[in-house]
Amino acid sequence: MNIPTTRRQVLKTATAAGTLAAMGMPHIANAQAGNNDTIKVGIIGCGGRGSGAIVQALKADPNVKVWAAGDAFQAPMDRCLKNIASLGERAIVPPERQFTGIDCYKEVMDSGIDVVLLTAAPGFRPRHIAAAVEKGIHMFVEKPMAVDPAGLRSVLESVKKAKEKNLSIQHGFCWRFHPAVKEAYGKITSGEYGRVKAVWGTYLASPVRPLANDAKKPEGMGDVEWQVANWINFDWLSGGALLEQAIHTTDKVAWAMNDAQPIAAIGTGGKVGRTDPGNVYDHHNVAYEYADDVFCHVSQRQIQGVHNEVIDRVTCEEATVFGPGRCYAKDVAGKMIWRSKPKPGEVQDMYQVEHNELFAALRAGKRIDGGDHMIRSTAHCLLGAYAAQTGKKVTWDDLWGSELDLAPDHLKFSDDFQPQSMPIPGQFTLA
């Protein structure tokens, strides 16, 4: 990847590469093919996605044990652990290995785990990834992997160190694991229908856990604690709706283009359907420019009471491919020429496939190398988000040359902290 390699300021005190190498192979090496050793799993972020991920990890391998759990708040962790209790002793986490607070990840990492599931608010992802690498822990990393260019550079450096330590990183771009979607995009990227001429992907949905329009921080609660409790509404924690949700669509645009580096993006966006105190847009329309005059469009929206759809339309020279889910293709005359069909015995749950592949590789002593992909696709989505926010044509080099860092790196729940104002196109710039 032709991108800068400087690290985020907060991580400059991390262990040097030579020290990392001296630590040797990670301790999961004892849980490889031909034995039944327990693989100890920790989870950081016990909300909806985290609760799903921990169930999938338990189903992926009969000797996975949920060893430690961490969340900023006790309530979601209690719900998560209650929900998985029916899966038996492997899902029971004793109170002494349950950790809360903004720094709970440190205690989870120190608990003796082999694998960590990183499913907390995305704004914390770079420091969580760095901590896992420092401790020699394999990881599943949910999307997105950063919310600003400074975080991207941190993750880039962490991925380099993970390779030096032979650590596995499985990314959470789940559609890449869906059997029908894999087949559809395999047809596209192989050139079966000719060159890709254009893509239009939509992620038009209702708002996700929006703050009430008159929401106010409760008396006695710090700014940071309140914002973390409502993280999806603040850009320093979620990155906004394009990055946090519709990144699945931008990732499939990248996939259709064989993960080639885009030249630039131009976009529009704003907040028109909500008046809550959060600072994230509720809609984006982005055009990605590629070589050979190929333009790929993404429409994202989270507004109540309007048309909803999540559809990919990849137009090639000889056919247009539609997805996701049950995928199909029509030729230029509109005739159906292919439709996906589940194969007997094939696991259809893309979330489960992610974890099946990770834990099978660990048992076999093989390395899952999803780090570069998660950086590239997160950057691809951020490129579109910043094109909308700045109102400018933003190039790949513009993105990676930016020093934008949306939040201090050592915040406490009790701290006073005001996120940046809502970006105004024409005024907002990439620092």
UniProtKB/TrEMBL annotation:
InterPro entries: Gfo/Idh/MocA-like_OxRdtase_N (IPR000683), Gfo/Idh/MocA_oxidrdct_glycsds (IPR050463), NAD(P)-bd_dom_sf (IPR036291), TAT_signal (IPR006311), TAT_signal_bac_arc (IPR019546). Keywords: Signal. It comes from the Bacteria. SUPFAM superfamilies: Glyceraldehyde-3-phosphate dehydrogenase-like, C-terminal domain, NAD(P)-binding Rossmann-fold domains. Residues 1-31 form the signal peptide. Residues 39-165 form the Gfo/Idh/MocA-like oxidoreductase N-terminal domain. GO terms for molecular function: nucleotide binding. The keyword Repeat does not apply. This is Dehydrogenase.
